[in-house]
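Colleagues,

For the teaching module next term, I've prepared a clean inverse folding example: a structure given as tokens, and then the sequence designed for it. I'd like students to try predicting residues themselves before seeing the answer, so please don't circulate the second half yet.
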């Protein structure tokens, strides 16, 4: 049985003092869950988040990283730097980074390799745009992104990659993919992984859904056959609402 993994992606929100209060509020609300709880916070909140979440079941992640270990890359942060302060997870290839910051399938792949080389657990995002879905290209687009992101990884690394299927048209729009559509897209991804890496890898890999997940739709989404939890944007910014999503099965 795959575990359910619920991750918050705060994007460019929350200050250190807000981070500390948020985690202090969240901790008692989620301490009894069997689900994995992750908060991916801005770089400037990481240290505070890690300190506040110490000795709790809340894991901390970053939202991006550079693929090189060090060097003349002004403004960038490497996997090695994240690992050095005990960050555990990192989001790679979010559609906002692909759209606004020139992230490509190639850089996503390099970042995944660098994350593993430094002992970070990657959450890699894939998903089609509205026009791609309307033109019937969704399956191809998603499968291609997955294939290119994972290229050259070992079976063991693929097993330890979290994939977040986030249809771009459902992000921040209030439009959620139906649980059936989201589950189907995730089945395409799992089938592709089975084709390349075999059944045991495909059955173990965690594939989340992201895009307007909230407490009112979490249960319907997360109780389908293939959706293993969610990557939550807006609804992860309020501790009570995020706790309800984490506790969708309680
Ligand atoms: P929303 O939950 O705000 O739609 O954002 C989803 C997302 O992009 C998470 O990474």
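(Answer key — instructors only)
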């Amino acid at each position: 049985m795959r575990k359910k993994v619920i991750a918050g992606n705060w994007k460019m929100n929350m200050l250190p003092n807000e981070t500390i209060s948020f985690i202090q509020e969240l901790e008692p609300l989620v301490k009894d869950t069997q689900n994995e709880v992750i908060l991916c916070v801005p770089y400037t909140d990481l240290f505070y988040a890690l300190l506040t979440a110490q000795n709790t079941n809340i894991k901390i992640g970053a939202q991006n990283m550079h693929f090189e270990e060090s060097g003349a890359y002004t403004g960038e942060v490497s996997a090695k730097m994240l690992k050095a302060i005990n960050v555990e997870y990192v989001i790679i290839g979010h559609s906002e980074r692909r759209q606004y910051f020139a992230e490509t399938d190639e850089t996503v792949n390099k970042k995944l390799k660098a994350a593993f080389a430094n002992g970070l657990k990657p959450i890699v995002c894939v998903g089609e745009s509205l026009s791609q879905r309307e033109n019937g290209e969704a399956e191809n687009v998603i499968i291609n992104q997955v294939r290119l992101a994972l290229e050259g990884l070992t079976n063991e690394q693929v097993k330890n990659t979290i994939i977040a299927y986030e249809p771009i048209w459902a992000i921040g729009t209030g439009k959620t993919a139906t649980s059936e559509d989201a589950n189907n897209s995730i089945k395409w991804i799992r089938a592709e992984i089975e084709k390349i890496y075999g059944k045991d890898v495909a059955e173990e890999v965690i594939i989340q859904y992201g895009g307007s997940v909230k407490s009112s739709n979490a249960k319907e989404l997360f109780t389908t056959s293939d959706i293993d939890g969610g990557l939550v944007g807006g609804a992860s910014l309020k501790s009570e609402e995020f706790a309800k999503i984490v506790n969708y099965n309680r």
